[in-house]
Amino acid sequence: MCWQCDNPDRPQSEYLMLLREGVADRGWLVQGVERSGLYPPWAYTIGLSGFGLPELVVTGLPMRAAGDLLNGMAEHSLHASPPSPGERILLRGGPLVEVVALAEPSAHLVFAVALFGPEIRALQLVHADDQGRWPWSSDFRDGEGGQPVLGVRRGR
């Protein structure tokens, strides 16, 4: 359940304070958004903007897998460099991902925007299915879909 769902009588400002403290302590956090009806789960980082880096987003993965992927890529981004739009990365023990720049990060990263402003940048880590098919392919997950792409692919 989400913080707001668990605390309907508490102001959002209280949650933002908790996020600020977490970002100050760790450098970034992962915000999960649970599945809702037809909308699959998704997650994004909060805090990479404070380092001048784009936030990272993943859609259509279970929360634990999304958190592991985002935390690993955030760590890499801080110590090496962030991925670039159009780049494909084969993750050790994970899926092949292609990086897509979000068209409008402020529409999707509500709490990152609340902390860092509407000019934040964000990259989506789009993952191939078990057969190596991408969500822009009609046979992705055997036609089941489940991974919205929040930007436009580059260079392919």
Low-confidence stretches: none
Give the terminus-to-terminus CA distance. 38 Å
Structural class: alpha+beta
Strand order of the largest sheet: 1-2-3-6-5-4
Instruction: Tell me roughly what share of residues is in helical segments.
Output: 25-40%
> What is the N-to-C succession of helices and strands?
HHEEEHEEHE
Protein name: DUF4262 domain-containing protein
Explained architecture:
With 156 residues, this protein is of the alpha+beta class. It has one domain. 28% of the residues lie in helices and 19% in strands. It contains four helices and six strands; from the N terminus they run ααβββαββαβ. A six-stranded mixed β-sheet has the order 1-2-3-6-5-4, sandwiched between helices. The mean pLDDT is 88. This is DUF4262 domain-containing protein. InterPro entries: DUF4262 (IPR025358).
What are the defining features of this structure?
156 residues; alpha+beta; six-stranded mixed beta sheet; 28% helix; DUF4262 domain-containing protein; DUF4262
Quick structural summary:
This protein is of the alpha+beta class and 156 residues long.
Secondary-structure blueprint of this entry?
Elements: H1 3-6, H2 12-26, E1 29-33, E2 42-46, E3 55-59, H3 63-79, E4 88-90, E5 96-101, H4 110-116, E6 122-127
Parallel strand pairs: 3-6
Antiparallel strand pairs: 1-2, 2-3, 4-5, 5-6
Protein name: DUF4262 domain-containing protein
Organism: Amycolatopsis vastitatis
Pfam families: DUF4262
